[in-house]
What we know:
This protein is mainly β. It contains 2 helices and 17 strands. The strands form 2 sheets. Strands 1-2-3-4-5-6-7-10-12-13-14-15-16-17 form a 14-stranded antiparallel barrel. This is Type IX secretion system membrane protein PorP/SprF.
Amino acid sequence: MKRILFLIILGWAVLQGLKAQTDAALSHYFMATAYYNPAAAGSTEDLKMLALFNRQWVGFPNAQQSFFVTADMPLKIGKTNHGIGIAAYTESIGLFQNTFVGAQYAYKQKLFGGVLSGGLQIGFVTESFKADSIYIPQSPFHQQEDEAFPKGTVSGMGLDLNVGLFYTHKNFYAGIGYTHVTSPEIQLEETVYTYIGGMLNFMGGYNIQLNNPLIVLKPSVFLLTDTKNYHLDVTARMEYNKMFNGGISWKMNESVGILLGANIGKFNIGYSFGYPTTAIRNVSWGNHEVVVQFRLKLKKTKTGNTKHKSVRIL
């Protein structure tokens, strides 16, 4: 009953009201699932470490740049399965710099031939604003100083909390996550505050094995929303011989793009390019994203006393 209650509480928290959009819309969301959903921590039997760099609106002054790193692994305690991880994300957009850091925990329960996870991430967010870089034209019509603007660079910190549910099966996965549950209000200066609202996300993917055993189709979908603004990303990829992969993506009212990737030893690398389909293409010629993931196969370990059946393994 405690396990069921835990998952119900998480599901209720995920479905609460939302306010303002803040999370980045990554093209490699299918690799960076833990960024959006802490329940994805330890979703495989590997120790995974990932680094991702995203450059939005190339050619646009002070355009968004973001860098994301994560590490997670499965953990077995007695007869129960868990996942643990850490995640860090930093972005600069305009005169703002945002940084999120958190520790992740996921509880796992077998269900319908797959695994259902409930996850929690606890951390903090810091935000800074470079007020001394504000450009005010020199003219009789512009006031050079305004009490509403802070002086110099100001920053603040707040508590950040993410929750989620994540289900994995042999050939598919699906997840729902709610980020910034605490809706942190950050004080930059005595009279200057900024606010980070919660966001809801859905993601899912399926592996389709063709008659040719070397080829697997991997369609996936991702939705990010604050109930007022929506980001929808539909991706279709093909993997060959578990080594090379590539495909196309469509982001609703944003861009179309290509994705390329390769699995080399313990490393998975990927690149994506997106071309804007809106008027922003008049000042920007595209978005770039690069990701590198390291995977190390782990042996399942148990805590407590270990019983040996043969002296040969002592």
